[in-house]
Amino acid sequence: MLNNENSIEVKDVSKSFKVYYDKGNELKEKLLFWKRNSYENRVVLDKISFTVKKGEAVGLIGRNGCGKSTTLKLLTKIIYPDSGSIEMCGRVSSLLELGAGFHPDMSGRENIYINAAIFGLTKKEIDERLEDIIAFSELEKFIDNPVRTYSSGMYMRLAFSVAINVNADILLIDEILAVGDANFQAKCFDKLREIKASGTTIIIVSHALGQIEEICDKSIWIKDGHIEQEGDPREVDIAYLDYMNGERLSKDEQERARILRIEAEQRRLKKVEQQQEEAGNEQNVNRHGSYDVRIGDVKLMNDDGVEINTIKTGTKARLEINYTVKNPTDAYIGYRILRVDGQLCSGSNTKADNMQPYRFDTEGKIEVDFLNVSLTKSQYWIDLFIEKPDGTCVDYYRETVKFNVVSDTDDVGVARIEHSWKNC
Fold first, then answer.
1. Structural domains in the chain plus CATH codes
2. With CB atoms counted within 10 Å of each terminal CB, which end of the chain scores lower, N or C?
3. Average pLDDT of the chain?
């Protein structure tokens, strides 16, 4: 029986397929060339198990053919496991293949009705959401044209727009965000953050690890039909990239690379020790990085510039971040807001907001204006991080500020925080 805290429970699921080498289609071919009917039984998933909590976003990563898309198809019940069980709670919306379920000779408008009906919406529900779907897709001029005249990007816009307006409890996405222009991708990310904040469970398959780290609370690395690693996206992604880099190298090159990594880690640790000595032997398990730029005093302020530790739902606040510079560098800055139980509730960074890297050359201050703190009543903390364009961590500072949120109601709708950056 499904645990009340979980949306999805996958237990010991296996799936295999018959792969024919050269199967004949006609009776004559099957009789004359019977040897061609031989096949290989290919195991794609071998007793995998994982759970997804309600409101959690999970990324599935792994090389091509490892079983990621098969896992999503099992979750949507397009196919069924050979053994094991899958339990899910709530309405499921999926984006597995671009334009799946679309009829090429029907218009975009007609396909909205067909696709939404597949997801379980009534005609009345579709009528109520039709304009929102069309508006989000930005296809007003083409909505009455046959979808066979659409580009792949237009297909994706329409399919995504339908799927996110189903008000599903579980949203499954397979690599579809790789299609479309940069502006629409950013719009999709914003919408996904909004959907996630509203409590929808999301599973994403993607080779773009930046997407996984931006949206997901957890990554699951599938390797040769087994779960190789599961946990924090940054840690799992690094392990996966190390493995993939190792696959491209010879044994001698792997050994040289291993030695270089050890030497680099030793240099990093020595540098950290030196920096800690320079900072008065400061020991802080809540931060790490190269410290070319170092986050200093951080304050949470109200509109009047008064430091606060309590915010009322729906009001504004400002985060004031002071920093010092040891080695001038170009880098992005970001924040993550986590509830006291560790649940990631909101977050962003200047790279995700399509801003150029800041030039950190002298000490200064950056402010983040939170325009609408739509968080439920609880305790929270803020993590801050600075990283270079290549992903190198400059300073990751956990629990820089802790604060409480008070509310007149426990239901505040979407827990998405609109924000703006200011370099002072």
1. 6-244 (3.40.50.300), 287-423 (2.70.50.60)
2. N
3. 82
